[in-house]
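Give me C-alpha cells for this 115-residue protein.
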Amino acid sequence: MIRMSSAAFFDYIDYAPDILDDLSGSILECFSKDICISSPLAELITSYPVELAYGLSLINCWNSSSGIPLWVLHNYPKVGWVMERLRDTPCENNECAYCRGAFNGKGRTEIFFQI
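Here you go.
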C-alpha cells in the first residue's frame, strides 16, 4: 500500500488554491470601514505578510492613544509604510467607505469639534 501525504496529493493533481484573491477579499470584507479598498493587498500579502499582519492587528485594536509599538518598528520597520498603504493614501473610488469618511474635511471637522 502506498501512502501519500496530502501535500504530495495536491501536487499530483496540480491543485493550487487562489489564496491571494481569497485572502484579499476576506481582508477587505473584515476591514471594509477601516482600510482603503484600493490598497495593494496582493502586493502586501506576498511581499510584507508579517508587516501586514501587525498593521491589521493594530487597526483592529486602534484607539486615539494607540501607536505602533517601538519593538514592532524596530523589528519590522516597514509596518509604518504598510499602514500608509492601507489608510493614509486616499483613493478617488466613490465606493470606498473608508476614504469617503476619513478624508472628508467637513465631516472630520464636525467630529473633532463635536458640532
